[in-house]
Amino acid sequence: MHLKPILLAALLAVTPALAFAQEQGEAETRDRPARQAPAERRDGVQLPPPASTAGAVDIGGSKLSYRVTAGSIDIRDGEGRLTAEVAYTAYVLDGQDGARRPVTFAFNGGPGASSAYLHLAAIGPKRVLTGNEGDVPSRPPVLQDNPETWLGLTDLVFIDPPGTGYSRAAGTGDAARQHFSVDGDIAVLARVVQRWLAESGRLGAPTYLVGESYGGFRVPKLAARLQTGEGVGVSGLMLLSPVVDFGTRTRGGDGVLAVAARLPSFVAVVRERKGPLSRDAVKDAEAYAFGEYLVDLARGDADPEAVRRRSARVAELTGLPEDFVRRSGGRIETGPYLRELFRDRERVASAYDGSVTSPDPYPTSLRSSYEDPVLDGMVAPLTSAAIAYTRDVIGWKPSGRYELLSRDVNRRWNWGSGLNPPEAVGELRSVLGLDPTVRVVVAHGLTDLVTTYMETKAALDRIPASLAGERLRFAVYPGGHMFYSRDESRKALRADIGWLYGAR
Prior knowledge:
Elements lengths: L26 H4 L20 E9 L2 E15 L5 E12 L9 E5 L8 H8 L2 E2 L16 E2 L9 E6 L7 E2 L4 H4 L4 H18 L7 E6 L1 H17 L5 E5 L9 H4 L2 H17 L10 H16 L5 H15 L3 H6 L6 H7 L6 E3 L7 E3 L19 H16 L12 H6 L12 H10 L4 E7 L7 H8 L11 E6 L9 H15 L3
Parallel strand pairs: 4-7, 4-9, 9-10, 10-13, 13-14
Antiparallel strand pairs: 1-2, 2-3, 3-7, 3-8, 5-6, 11-12
Helix pairs in contact: 2-12, 4-5, 5-14, 7-8, 7-15, 8-9
């Protein structure tokens, strides 16, 4: 089976409600997106000047009015040469004190994903319905009000790193490549955050960061860079479906910790077929995975009794044929699992949510190549919605291609060199240690098989209680990588992050 290399989170049905005429005579003018001046082409700048308009969202009968701006921030080197143009979409609630009002910067993952997933499917004031069983690419991407938007708690700034959305790396050679690396990515995004705050007069505002998937890996590193490199304090972090330590995935995912961490999520997929479930429903699988199973995995394949024990128990927990599990040495890989589980129905499941399936294009083949029902199924609606919303509602009209998911960025990414795979737990420790008021929320989906919740929990458990204590909360919701596509999980997330903003 072929699975995409992108780790992102990858994620509107609306007719946007624009309500901002405060005086009768100004209504017609204000209901139009702001006109743009002709784009200046100085020093290689290609993206047009910012454009903005007013909007409103209905939340349980209460209206929130805001101004939304789309634009870009140009990044230059020490000699003033343009190295990147980074696009953003910012929402500022009307009638608020900007010095006190929180502002949250949002990033998706990949590397190579734009912020449209968080923007238009999770926390922005408008959203598109996508990502669940039965959602198809041809479904019209109609925007609708998002009652679970975070705008009631914080202003929102969605950032597209270079090479994603309309953002671009400028120049050639090293000047362009520097942005497609672990360290270069953090350097440019830190500058963008600092510049937006400074140019908006918000440097004193409480600042928060939210990232999904690789974006969750970014967030601790970005917070550390802002604290000590850009002079910007960070009040709170939200990591959604993150990878925080790539070291657990060494040797092609064959590390025993990664194998053990997948098992509870495999079990969750099976048990959810019988009805809704919570994390409590797989506590037995968690206990086995990080107890007897981990010990038997560590014994390797040279111990036939360990192989027999783990194969029998894994088959019992997952419902897979025992001979299939035994042939796998009691270590189930994600690809074969997703196909074998639904083989009798000639369907395949998504790695991004094992409960979402689609027909298997090659049901009789030993190996199958197919588009992921969630990741690939979201491309058309989110891309169309992002382009139409930016151009037709906000009135910002870049001429270049919009990249929801850039395989080119993902393929070119520089993960660094040396013996140690990249990790962000060290930066998370540093951020918590430097500022004892910082709070953190980490959230995962039960049936996410791309970044499993137990893998993250094992990494976070290395942080001493003297640092984390009551300041770090770990939540697991029904759903997959983009668990917020489920209404109840999106509502639960919105309720839980209220703690973060209320802690100021």
